[in-house]
Write the structure tokens for this entry.
Amino acid sequence: MIVTLTPNPSLDRAYELPSLDRGAVLRATRDRVDPGGKGVNVSRAVAAAGHRTVAVVPLGGPEGALLARLLGEHGIEAAGVPVAGSTRVNITLVEPDSTLTKVNAAGPQLSGAEAEALMEAVRSRATGADWIACCGSLPRGLGPEWYAQLVARAHRAGLRVALDTSGGALGATLAEEPDVVKPNAEELAEAVGRPLATVGEVVKAAGELRERGARAVLASLGADGQLLVDATGTWFGHAEPVAVRSNVGAGDASLAGFLAAGGSGPAALAAAVAHGTAAVQLPGSVMPTPADLAPDAVIVTDAVPTDRLLTEPAR
């Protein structure tokens, strides 16, 4: 069972447009609304794979009520923490060539009491969990050290924590030794303070995060594949190129696949790559089911192509 924490969840509305013309009245050819936020997406992917998951989320206003209802429709048990502000609504505009324009709202500001209630909800729902996945940006009112406090409490309770965040929140949490951190190439470059142009440079940067405390680093490199760097060594996974429909939530699907497959080693990395590859072929932030996966198309090796240039160098 996997418990996810999304401190700043959202309703994700996606509109597919024939073209994106600034200043014009645009008419969508398709639209959909999904429960959103990185941890929510992880729960959606875990549930789609047939595993139990509990999503801990702050919920506020009619938007929060709709989010809770949508989670239930996806087979996810919602552990909602009432907050005074309204749950945010994010907008994604999708052009025919799959170019995405995203507008993410700031979300509500949490009080000290609401932040503590969120921490307590994780504690009370995590008994017996295989993993706690803490995902996404922190809302206003929570300092960058908040995730570090949560990881410390979880470890004292004997629980494993996967962390998917960036910036100051990532840096402040490394000293508490999260069991897995999952940056993309851009987030990893920010964490080490320099551009990353090759797979080898990503490997070195991941090693630096481990030196700072992370027990394992699962790095998403987009179309170039994924890396797992842990105590056993370095593993590289990739799949054949596919037609990308939407990359929203693909990294979250990857983390879900990794954790559901045990959260360590090359088999878990292969599951991460399979889930991420399937997710980019689906519309909006739809999460893949087992029928969408093509595990035989995934290659995992310890022969890491360190000289390979990244398709989009991270700066």
Notes: The chain has a mean pLDDT of 95. The radius of gyration is 18 Å.
